[in-house]
Amino acid sequence: MKTVIRKELLDCFQSIQFIVLLIISIILFSANGLIFSAKYSRQQNWYDQKTADTWDDPSTVSLPLYKQPSLLLFLAEGGDKFSPPGYQLHQKGFLSPVPASSQNFKLPDLPELDWAFIIKIIFSLYAILLGYRAVSGEKELGTLRLALSNPISRAGLLGAKYVAIVLALIIPLATGMLISLAISGFKVPHVLNTELVLRIILTFISAFIYLSVFAFLSLALSSLIHQSSLVLLVLLALWVLFVVMVPNTSGILAERFSETPGEYQTAKMVSSQAIRKLMGEKLRPIIDKARKGEFETEAELYRQTDAAFDQLQEELTKLYTVYDNAISRRQMLARNISRLSPTTLLQYASENIAGTGLASEQRFLDDIMAYSSVYDNYVLKKVGKLVGVTNWSFAASSEFKGKRIILRSPRPEEYQGDKSDFPRFSPSRPSVKQSLHYALLDISGLVLWNLVLAMAAFAAFSRSDVR
Amino acid sequence: MLRTIIKREIQEYLKSLKFLIGLLITVVLVTVSTFISLNEYRQRHADYLAACEETKNDITYVRVYRSPELLSVLVQGKDRRLGNQVEITSGSLPYGTHGYMGWYRSRHNRIMAGFEAVDFAFVVRVVLSLLVIFLAYNAVSEEKSNGTLKLALANNLPRDRLLLGKFIGGGIIVLVSLLIATLLALLILISDPVIALGRGEWIRLGGMFAVSALYLGSFYTLSLFVSVLVNRPATSLIVLLQVWVVLLIIYPNLGLVLARKLQKLPGQEEITRQKEAAWAPYEKESKEISNAFSNAFKNGGRPSTELSLRNDEIRSRRAELQYQVDLECGNLFTGQAQLARRISIFSPAVLYDEMMNRLARTGMDQVERFLEAVPRHWRKHVERGKLLWKDREAFRKSKLPEFDYGRETLAESFKGIIYDAMILFLFGIIFFGLAYNGFLRKDVR
Question: What ipTM, to 2 d.p.?
């Protein structure tokens, strides 16, 4: 068995695919290390400066809260560049996104060069290129029947081929990863710590399980089809399906099948016309009462309009929440559809391990909402009242006892006293165990793919006519 | 003789299982992707029409919209990814588009993160280029390894004619595959009752077909060249596939990385600083006018016409100054994007994408046109706004002219792709020349 594995390994290592993969891996992982270490340093500096600004003089009017940049962005960026770097927390829990730093929207839309991208696209393709001739190639050359005339079981031979393919993938992968880590460690020394090493190991294991899917797939088809070039063609078709079609079309499919309203439908509810109408409904009865002289004092009129403005802001907050929830639900649906593909399972597992992507964004929002009540309590204690605000402020004119007055939506007040007891916001960071727990579903999916394809490969090879 | 070789080549390809499987995959992918994109386009178009209708009567917040392009069904480009709305007021002139929910609030970009476009252009760029490699990788190497090449050349058949025959035979098969894919996509497109293709669109579609043929031609001649160079078909296939990976995935990505590294862009802080510096000379004057304007409302009063006009003027001046800073930053964006393109110019996939986007009007050029038209419209809006203080009735009666951003004409689109098409054609010529030269010097024993 050892001899067979050695022979298969030598075959793989001498192949042009292995050498090219090693070179590509070194280039791509080096680029990854350089890009993300520079990006992380930039983001961390920005975050430190902004956070210091927030807590130097925390505001009771609104508080900007920033998301700490992830050390592990280089593992899986997870679309974080499209997320706001933080949120402005207003009283009564309204959140407005902090503008992200300027992105060059004119560049071609190519995915980020993170580890997940390199593994899911390049390495999976090379798993196919290394494995497609494993059985059919030997059949074409006539060496398969010679190999099986030796005292070795078919399962043993296929196992040896599998080990050789996986090792030929793992060696360039490990080399690339180490180079990327060395560059990141050199540029940002504090990146390297025990937690990071554990997360890297988890990523490596996920990558191994993912690449194993393509190794088994190649072996299964190589055993089923006799002509190597045809095996490769079918494998490439499946690669396009798994790596490109399923992950990419699920976004549009989710939009099509989601029952939640689209962006335009939601935007209509918070359009300036809709809001003016809403404001009219709330204020008109009060203004009419004022005109008829039903208010005794000006203070009474202001009290009622303030209450109406407050209700208006609350309704607007609800509408914005409807939009955010609709987007989240649609994103979840798209992600669940795309989970049919092993490539997406690896992507989501990597995001969970790295603590990036949608799940981390949602966790950050949950943390802010939990902090929001602490913040409101503090403001209430210090200022004595809470004023809900959104992106909108309102004004209307009214008559009071023959005099024209302007009614403005109230603004929150800044507390001028001592703020040394201002409650701090500390976003949660999932431990390695928690991250593994979140990633477990996707890793289990990958294991399932492995089991099915391994059985298919062994069944196909054991029934294969090797003459 | 040439005709016999072409006929034989075509028959060989048509009988091969790889051609049938490749064609089947192409047909399935084109059908699925066109149906999905068409459905999505209909929704975007309906939203666009509804939004235009709704904004007509809003006099305070003027919203302008970029119409979704019909041919984005086949080539999505930037059409879906970038939002199609810009909201302007007399005091705000943003640079860039956003979704219907407005600046910062809209998450249209976030929802699409990780989901790339799968359209006709993708099928040609990825799947058909692979099929072409599969068709041509063994055109010469297989005959050499089987020993039929020396038999064929033992007849009264010049080498150049044999290669030409193989080239034309395979080329016809490649064109037929492309034609089937294109006709299928067109059939789905025109069978939809909402879609009406005009003369311009048909010509653009013809251009897209020609560009796709050039792109596939460059891969076809490259495969022919490698097949001439390498004696073992398995080796030529592996070599070609690795070249394909480099040209389609690695090289364009590294080009982008390099462009980002070479041309740095200002951060948000820097842009804010520049805006503040541009505004600093007017700040004092602005505060005075703004305070006077607000104070005039106190105690039920109204500001004078002159004060109101000055207040509007200073607000719009601020918007214009900020826009200038954004515009300069936008020019740097353009510079970086052009650098990335220049670095990746040897990738047929990059050239192909550029040309298809230009022909379908879904590339940055179209978005740039839209962005350039926004300040012109904004100035009209500001001018009209002055009427509000001078003559309220005239303001009510006046209407803002329709927003028009002058979509790219056919001539402009074709002029825009001519150099890229020439480069792609040159690739084909060079590879064919190399294959021809290599074949004449090849040891066929």
Answer: 0.85
Q: Is residue A153 pLDDT above 90, yes or no? A: no
Q: Which residues from chain A sit within 8 angstroms of residue B271, using beta carbons?
A: 102
Environment class of B301 (CB within 10 Å of its CB; exposed 0-12, middle 13-18, buried 19+): exposed
CA A182 to chain CA centroid, Å, is 25
The residue ranges of every structural domain in chain A are: 2-101+112-262+334-369+431-463, 264-328+373-408
What is the average pLDDT value for chain B, to the nearest integer? 87
Residue B156 has, within 13 A of its CA and on its CB side, a CA count of: 1
CB contact under 8 A, B105 and A97: yes
Contact B141, B233 (CB under 8 A): yes
DSSP structure class, residue A297: S
Inter-CA distances, A194 with A431, B147, B206, Å: 12, 61, 59
Q: Which of B37, B115, B246 comes nearest A334 by C-beta?
A: B115
Cβ neighbors of A289 (< 8 A, separation 6 or more) are: A295, A304
The percentage of residues in chain B with a pLDDT greater than 70, rounded to a whole number, is 95
> Which of the residues A37, A43, A46, A106 would you substitute to probe the B interface, choosing the one with the greatest number of B C-beta atoms within 10 Å?
A106
Cβ distance A233 to B253 less than 8 Å, yes or no, reads: no
Question: Nearest CB to A101: which of B106, B126, B267?
Answer: B267
Nearest CA to CA, how far is B156 from chain A (Å)?
Answer: 32
Q: What is the pLDDT of residues B30-69, one digit of tens each?
A: 998 898 889 888 888 999 998 888 887 776 678 899 999 9
Assess contact for B64 and B374: CB atoms under 8 A.
Answer: yes
Summarize the confidence of residues B235-255 as an average pLDDT.
Answer: 89
Facing A82 at nearest CB: one of B103, B113, B336: B113
Q: Is B67 helix (H, G, I), strand (E, B) or coil?
A: coil
CA-based nearest distance B314→chain A, Å: 22
Q: Closest Cα to residue A204, out of A118, A133, A144, A283?
A: A118
Which of A206, A247, A246, A42 is closest to A115 using CA atoms? A206
Instruction: Report helix, strand or coil for B371.
Output: helix
pLDDT per position as a tens digit, B180-239: 999 999 999 999 888 888 999 999 999 999 999 999 999 999 999 999 888 888 888 888
C-alpha separations of A84 from A69, A87, A301, A362 in Å? 11, 7, 40, 12
CB-nearest to B249 from A121, A228, A405 is A121
pLDDT-derived band of residue B405, with 50, 70 and 90 as boundaries? confident
The answer to whether the Cα torsion of B433, B435, B436, B441 is positive or negative is positive
Are the beta carbons of A104 and B37 separated by less than 8 Å? no
pLDDT of residue A328: 80
Give me B35's structure tokens: 């149906």
Q: Which residue of B44, B85, B89, B107 is the best one to mutate when testing the A interface, meaning the one whose CB has the most A CBs within 10 A?
A: B107
Cβ-Cβ contacts under 8 Å, B105 against chain A: 96-97, 320, 323, 391
For A314-327, give one letter per residue: b (16+ CB within 10 A) or e. Answer: ebbbebbebbbebb
